[in-house]
Amino acid sequence: MFQKLFISNPEAEKPAPLSPRKGVIIGAGQVGLACAYSLLIQDCFDELILQDLAQDKVEGEVMDLLHGMPFLSPTDLKAGTVADVGQNADLVIITAGTAQKPGESRLNLLERNVAIFHSILDDVVKYCPDALLLIVTNPVDIMTYASLKISGLPSSRVIGSGTVLDTARFRSLLAKKLDIDARSVHAYIIGEHGDSEVPVWSTANVAGVKLVANGWENLGAAEQKELTTIFDQVKNAAYEIIKRKGYTSYAIGLAVTDIVKAILRSQERVLTVSSLVDGFYDIHDVCLGLPTVVNEKGIVKTVNLALNQAEEQQLRDSAQVLREVFSQLKL
Predict the structure, then answer these.
(1) pLDDT of residue 75
(2) What is the C-alpha to C-alpha distance for residues 329 and 127, in angstroms, rounded to an integer?
(3) Residues 115 and 261 in one domain
């Protein structure tokens, strides 16, 4: 029946084969699915595999997404594993992780997640040896560092989502205050994706006009309080969302998509991803978020932000917080 639908032209030349954009998302929880949905509707991959231990669930999610394919650019979406994608995968995105048990310490949780990553990364390195790794699992800077050490991959190919979402939240709140498009605000959150993250007020600007033109110390008490409130809302955003709905998902899905597009389309984007820092601002052997140029090769170079003394010290303090946790992990 279906063979009679079309009449082939024997003289038609076959087009030169294109290299399909291939990816895997490991972890089909709320974050993994938000990433998958955003990546699909923005036409990021030609082939995408969702991998999860809950096989029935991931198959059901894939079926649901596939039923929407007539509304999208085509993507070959499947439930499977990294073994199914072949050795020419471009990107492996890891959102998998275990939830914290009642009374469990943060370090014990981290050790369990590191054990999970050992199993995951053994397969990633075996079946996708040339792929870039994009780590989304929290605490993302620690898991990025662990992935780097476990996988043995070059540091340029191991990327964490870092403070990309924090930076977006920062710009969004500033834009709302200024009543302008968030894309016109140029401001960064750097350091840990967590409580020790650092707002870079000294370079924050709109169209080149600095928001804190004469330095923080020269602001009035009311202005300092107003800006501090905005940063506190950024830092505590995840806590507030989790308190209300139990998890965060949509915004991190969009943030991951922005990173993926920068990689697959070789956009040379500057994004505050987490990657290995060794010597910048006198910080060594730690993964944290800094404005970084990203393309199809992964981490290309880091922007040399002109931080003031207070910001430099806050960044070093943030690095020390992460380093103390790293030192306790059994990698």
Answers:
(1) 96
(2) 26
(3) no
**Residue 9: which pLDDT band, with cuts at 50, 70 and 90?**
low
CATH classification at residue 232: 3.90.110.10
- Residue 14 pLDDT level (bands cut at 50, 70, 90): low
Q: Is 101 found in the same domain as 198? A: no
- Quote the domain boundaries for residue 257: 164-328
Mean pLDDT of 105-134: 89
Which of 67, 118, 186, 193 is flagged as catalytic?
Answer: 193
Residue 202, both tokens? 């000294």
Query: The pTM is what?
Result: 0.92
- Angstrom distances, CA of residue 226 to CA of 186, 206, 220: 18, 18, 10
Over residues 204-217, the pLDDT tens digits come to 999 999 999 888 88
186 is annotated as an active-site residue: no
Cβ distance 304 to 291 under 8 Å? Answer: no
Give yes or no: residues 147 and 37 share one domain.
yes
Half-sphere exposure of 116 (CA within 13 A, CB side): 18
Q: How far apart are CA 315 and CA 288, in angstroms?
A: 9
